[in-house]
Each structure stands twice: as structure tokens, then as C-alpha cells.
Specification:
Shape: globular
Largest sheet: 8 strands, parallel, barrel
Radius of gyration: 19 Å
Order of helices and strands: HEHEEHHHEHEHEHEHEHEH
Number of strands: 9
Distance between the termini: 25 Å
Number of helices: 11
Mean pLDDT: 94
Strand content: 15-25%
Low-confidence stretches: 1-19
Structural class: alpha/beta
Amino acid sequence: MNFCTGLLPCLMFLSTQAHALEIIAHRGYSEIAPENTLAAFKLGWEKGADACELDLYLTGDNQIAILHDADTKRTTGVAKKVKETPLAELQMLDAGSWKSSAYHGERIPSLAEALATLPQGKQRFFLEVKDTVRVVPELTRQLAGWKSRASQLCIIAFDRAVAQECKKAMPWMPVYRLSAEKTKEKKPVDLAKLISDTKEDGLDGLDLGLKWDWSPVLVDQVRAAGLKIYAWTINKPEDARRLAALGLDGITTDDPVMLREAVKP
């Protein structure tokens, strides 16, 4: 075999593999900017994240707000329950100063405001539904106009019922099931059953936590079911390299710049 002609396909293969891993900025570039804010999402896009993840809840006036917790205390210093508070009232709070004075005045975004930061192209949002199935009708309504950009969105959820309802309401949208390695009762999650449930529900993949017993066997088991496989939340270079070597579809991290450097071939 001619060395050059033999080397080129190999280099092309390696390049494809290097770019196949989707690097997902957890709550935006949350290592630097305040999580789940427009600043965090914009910084994620600016620094080349393939995707940003966000968390969403239904507000007291049937709008959708972007924040991780069911109340605002941790990230604003003011305790308000999201499900009881109108969006406009939530947006009066300062959701940036807890992270740094440089982000003083950063607000809790609406879903529409967050989505508006998404560049046209291949980057996408992972929309984590933290609320119950009650949010699905409004979420479906707000995302209806995004069908033409379906490849730039996906939904993730821990709650099986939420994932089921999202897939039923939006069959055009990829939906991935989130899972820690243990149940709320601290019992190990049965991977075979999780895969079976995910297939039965017509979902598209699994998004599993770092503490799972990651191995080629686990990845092969998920892929054999025709499912995508992602990992969260990976913030150490050695963990990033270990999981990237397994050929995952994507890895979620607070620091997408660190992770990209860590997995460079």
C-alpha cells in the first residue's frame, strides 16, 4: 500500500472521531459565568461549545423560566418558589452577583430569551425539564416554531413520565433519559431495565452520571439497543479522557474549554 494513500483515510478517520464527541456546556459556561443565564450561554457559544444545557420550570403565570432549583434562594439570595411566582417577578432578581460582581444584574432568563442566543448552525441546546409533566403543554407550545431547527434542540429528563410525555407531544424532538447510578432509595439502577424502559418509551438515548461503572461493556450495551449515550457532569481532565476514549456521543461539563483541550488527539 502506498504510504500516503493509506495514511489519508486513517487521518480522516481520526479527525472524524475527534470531532464526533459533543461537548456540552453545563448550564452554559458555568465554571466562569453564573449558571443558567444569558451570559453563561453566550460565553459557551463564544468559546466553541457544541451545545449548552439548561434547566427549566413552569412559573406561577404559566411561563417558562430557566434555573436549576425549584426556588431562587441559592442563585439570587431571595427565596421565591418558581411555581408560585410570575416570570416578571423572578426576572427582577439578581441572578449573577452570587458568582461574581462582574455579573451583577444578570437575570433569570425565559426559555425564549435563552433560545434566542442559539446561533444558526450545528450547535444546540439540551433542555432539561426539572418540572413535572405540568410544563409539557407550554413547552410544546413554545417549541412549536422550532421544528425547522429540530437538529439544534433535544430534551433531557430524569422523570420517566416527563420524558414520555415530551416524546409524545414532540415526536420530532430527540429525548434522552437522564439517570444517576443509584435510585433515590440508594439502590443501584438496573441498566438493562433502564435501557428497556427507554426503548419502550420511544426515546433516543441515555445521559448517565459520572459515577456509573463506565466501561466498553456498558457503552456497547446501550449502543446495541440503538440508543445514543452521553455522560454528565465531567470536570476533571482525566475523567474526560477516560470517557471520551469509550466513544460516547457527548460529555457535559462546567468547563467546555478544559474538556476540549483534555480530549484533543
